Amino acid sequence: MAPVPIFPIKVGHIDDVQELRKTKPTTIPERYVRDQTERPTLATTLLSSSSSPTDDIHIPIINLSKLMKANNNTTTADEFHTEIVNLTTACQEWGFFQVVNHGIDLSLLESIEMVAKDFFMLPLEEKQKYPMAPGTVQGYGQAFVFSENQKLDWCNMFALGVEPHYIRNPKLWPSKPADFSETLESYSREVRKLCQNLLRYIAVSLGLKEDVFEEMFGVAVQAVRMNYYPPCSRPDLVMGLSPHSDGSALTILQQGKGSSVGLQILKDNTWVPVQPIPNALVINIGDTIEVLSNGKYKSVEHRAVTHKEKDRLSIVTFYAPSYEIEIGPMTELVDDVNNPCKYRRYNHGEYSKYYVTNKLQGKKTLDFAKIQVTNSS
């Protein structure tokens, strides 16, 4: 969520999808209709139905209390080791997992969901007081739009920089709902602690000392984005959110209660739906961890699909290193013979700027950091 300079970008007319749903419930404007190759196929839209045979495919579940209690000697060494092995598998083979017993008060999860939903249900004129300017990623609207003919996602977004304070744009923090700012502050504080704890155990799973990321990251950057996906009469033609990987170190996703199943991750060239577990949070590894782990843990492409009758709300927190620091593979994870260096060192702020000024397109933005291997023959 790096602050980026506003440069002249023509994005053309962008319909607000909630308003479309209200006034023209069966109309899908051309800008939302995906090219044939980009459409969610019937098979992948069926993945979201409860009768789907893929219901047996579940992303890993990590019980954070089994890791946390090790510090209080209430978890045995065996239990701790088993959960670290589970975490390693989740990061290495999936890039995604759901975390249970995460320590965040469930009433706080309900509160943030309520204020987010209340915000999206405000009249359009009220939400438009907080516009997302073209080329930026804070405010209300559609992010990652850079041309007049670019296909749009069937989604309304509201995004805010949270930490450090200098990335905030106070004019974009809404006055309605009245408890929005206070709830977001409390929620973000708790999610920040969760990210710090998860990064400790991810470091341990990589064979590194547990505070290595916290020491390296400096004052970590944190941002939140709320996504609202109205129902869509033709979910087979549109994309809720384009396929992409995240530029952060970690992304924490809260899926709204009663929402349709919309999140899908790319696993073995198949789009797998993430079935929500009550009170769990979905965690995914971002590009930054892929680089630091020298590719041992990979950021994974994911997308959102829409539903014909149900809406969907998600609240996403991005947690990343300070913009000032340099990122590159950890020397302990580079071996010239068996695991040569796959990524160059780069300034994290520079990468963040590159990420937010390019449209979402799979893992293409990570090419920024990849060392290109050339054949010497």
* Major beta sheet, strand line-up: 1-2-10-7-12-5-4-3
Order of helices and strands: HHEHHEHHEEHHEEEEEEHEEEEH
Please report the number of helical segments. 10
* Helical proportion, percent range: 25-40%
Overall residue-averaged pLDDT value: 87
Q: Pairing-aware structural class of the strands and helices?
A: alpha+beta
Describe the structure.
The protein is an alpha+beta fold and 377 residues long. The chain is built from ten helices and 14 strands. It has helices at 17-23, 42-46, 64-68, 77-94, 106-120, 124-127, 180-205, 212-217, 287-292, 348-356, and strands at 61-63, 96-100, 139-141, 156-163, 221-229, 241-244, 250-255, 263-267, 270-273, 281-285, 302-304, 312-320, 326-327, 346-347. The chain has an eight-stranded mixed β-sheet. The protein has a four-stranded antiparallel β-sheet with strand order 6-11-8-9, with no helix packed on it. The chain is globular, with a radius of gyration of 20 Å. The model is unreliable at 1-6 and 42-55 (pLDDT under 50).
Brief overview, please?
By secondary structure, the chain is an alpha+beta fold. 27% of the residues lie in helices and 18% in strands.
Notable traits:
377 residues; alpha+beta; four-stranded antiparallel sheet; 10 helices; globular; Fe2OG dioxygenase domain-containing protein
Topology:
Elements (H helix, E strand, L loop, with lengths): L16 H7 L18 H5 L14 E3 H5 L8 H18 L1 E5 L5 H15 L3 H4 L11 E3 L14 E8 L16 H26 L6 H6 L3 E9 L11 E4 L5 E6 L7 E5 L2 E4 L7 E5 L1 H6 L9 E3 L7 E9 L5 E2 L18 E2 H9 L21
Parallel strand pairs: 1-2
Antiparallel strand pairs: 2-10, 3-4, 4-5, 5-12, 6-11, 7-10, 7-12, 8-9, 8-11, 13-14
